[in-house]
């Protein structure tokens, strides 16, 4: 019996997701969000060299439109938002702060994947 492709299985590992900044501003929130797929995308994006990284727009199989999670470089710093809330963006953050927050998110998802009994290597980038 063939199993589904890993990318398809990643969509099935879901959790409630809330994007907020240090001030408590909720940028966007979604129940049942494909966090393993997002974790994989973050991991790949973080590994890009600084000069090649550019902005981030999550292109998920769960959404018809890319950008459910967006990270954009601005003159003030990196801002996080969503295509679903175009008028709401996080306060600007330094690259060091943003990368640290993404690393915490990746580790939390990894811990939950392990708690589910799934080997962390199943999710690329963990």
**Quantity of strands, as a count:** 5
Regarding quaternary structure, what we see is single chain
Mean pLDDT: 88
Shape: globular
H/E element string?
HEEHHEEEH
Number of H- or I-type helical stretches: 4
Strand content: 15-25%
Query: What separation lies between the terminal Cα atoms?
Result: 26 Å
Strand order of the largest sheet: 3-4-5
Largest sheet: 3 strands, antiparallel
CA gyration radius, whole angstroms: 15 Å
Question: In terms of structural class, how would the helical and strand content be classed?
Answer: alpha+beta
Helix content: 25-40%
Low-confidence stretches: none
Task: Describe how the helices and strands are arranged.
Elements: H1 6-11, E1 15-20, E2 26-33, H2 35-46, H3 50-53, E3 56-57, E4 70-73, E5 78-81, H4 95-115
Antiparallel strand pairs: 1-2, 3-4, 4-5
Organism: Streptacidiphilus cavernicola
Domain DUF7878: 8-113
Pfam families: DUF7878 (PF25297)
Outline the structure in words.
It holds the Pfam family DUF7878. It is a single chain. This protein has 126 residues and is an alpha+beta fold. The protein starts with 5 loop residues before the first helix and ends in an 11-residue tail after the last helix. It has a 3-stranded antiparallel sheet, with no helix packed on it. It is built from 4 helices and 5 strands. It has helices at residues 6-11, 35-46, 50-53, 95-115; strands at 15-20, 26-33, 56-57, 70-73, 78-81. The model has no long low-confidence stretch (mean pLDDT 88).
């Amino acid at each position: 019996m063939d199993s589904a492709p890993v990318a398809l299985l990643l969509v099935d590992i879901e959790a409630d997701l809330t994007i907020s900044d240090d001030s408590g501003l909720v940028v966007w929130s979604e129940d049942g969000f494909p966090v393993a797929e997002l974790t994989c995308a973050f991991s790949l994006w973080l590994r890009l060299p600084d000069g090649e990284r550019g902005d981030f727009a999550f292109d998920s199989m769960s959404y018809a439109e890319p950008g459910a999670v967006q990270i954009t470089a601005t003159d003030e710093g990196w801002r996080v938002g969503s295509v679903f809330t175009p008028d709401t963006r996080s306060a600007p953050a330094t690259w060091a702060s943003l990368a640290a927050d993404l690393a915490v998110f990746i580790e939390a998802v990894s811990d939950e994947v392990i708690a589910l009994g799934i080997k962390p290597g199943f999710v690329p980038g963990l």
